[in-house]
Amino acid sequence: MALGGGTYLTQNKVLPGAYFQFISKAIASATLSDRGVAAMALELDWGADDKVVSVTASDFMKDSKKMFGFDYDAAEMLPLRELFKHASKVYVYKVTSGGVKASNTFAEAKYTGKKGNDLKVVIQTNVDDGEKFDVLLYLGTEKMDSQTVSKASELIDNDFVVWKKSAELSVTAATALSGGTNGTASTSNHQAFLDKIGSYPDVNAIGYAGSESAVKGLYAAFADRLRNDVGIRLQVVMHDYSSADSISCVNVKNSAELVYWATGVIAGTAVNKSATNMKYDGELSINTEFTQDELTEALEKGEWVLHQVGTEVHVLEDINSFTSITDEMGDIFKDNQTIRVIDTRADSIASIFASKYLGKVPNDKSGRVSLWSDIVKIDQQLSDINAIEDFDPEDITVEQGDTKKSVLINSAITIINTMEKLYMKSMIE
Hints:
Blueprint: E1 4-7, E2 17-20, E3 37-42, E4 52-56, H1 57-68, H2 78-83, E5 89-94, E6 101-103, E7 107-112, E8 119-125, E9 133-139, E10 142-149, E11 161-163, E12 172-176, H3 187-197, E13 205-207, H4 213-230, E14 235-239, E15 249-252, H5 258-268, H6 292-300, E16 303-304, E17 306-309, E18 312-315, H7 336-357, H8 365-384, E19 388-389, E20 397-400, E21 407-410, E22 414-415
Parallel strand pairs: 1-2, 3-5, 3-13, 13-14, 14-15, 15-16
Antiparallel strand pairs: 4-5, 6-7, 7-11, 8-9, 8-12, 9-10, 17-18, 19-22, 20-21
Helix pairs in contact: 3-4, 7-8
């Protein structure tokens, strides 16, 4: 008779033999390198409709014209250049709807928007074969495409136009596309953007540079709902939104244009860093004509403000709009560095729980010890990079919750903030 053997889940085998259990070990780690992701809904002259487009800094520099219709250094691209000063990736959404695609006899623009009116089709007789045509596509004065074909049905669509395959090709010096128009942006368009971007959990900050109070309220409520009900932690950046009063909302004082740069900063600042005293390195002319009293009032109101330091412009203090201090949520929650630490810690613990424990590990003493050990590893990493201090594993407890399926974690951490105020007392003899 053969001996027993193979794998086991429980120690309940009857036959003698060797039984094995192999488990892949999950690694607990804080997601410290994932910041730098921003998102914005923009009113664009060119680009995909009703679609979130992921753009990296290198994509933007290399393919700006293809994606947005303009060169990287064009004035129209200033908002994105400001964003990418500190963001590494931006989810861009063309927020307008109802636009029209430009067209002519030979082609239709790939996207809606007035930029399509800058496209021109030039058709020439091929010098080597008089039966064929050279079909050229220009955006302004720059040639974007060239194809040699016998008939329109042979033309291959490109990043700018869809060719009308049934057209009769004929020599033309330059036939412009026309009729392209931009759409309009409404509250419902912004809601459509938020509905889509809610499924991108890597977003650190969302910006809205508009002035509509209803839209501002929409963004603020969205960020609070994601944080409190969904477990997705991000911050929205807006201008002149005095009603915010939330750790999820950064209220920029200086101007609406500054929202683009500020969104990149809020997204891209590392978990163990602060944007306090950061030098403005964008292209805007920033209004910094504030008195000391006005700057003090701005901080008390939870406004993120840039001020003049000699010949430079700097962030006064890296704060959010939270002002309703309570015993449960003290003054420290006004600081964005604090929010970055607690968000990173929460996201890291949630990630390791979902990947390693949820539905997989028994809620017994050994399972809870394992979870405790992984949380300790996460906090140790945060301590190693000076995001928290005085870390003591004994400050963390993992217990069974009110039901057999729940786990209750109690912990205490001391968050490190950068130095902002110096008080010196000197005794002179």
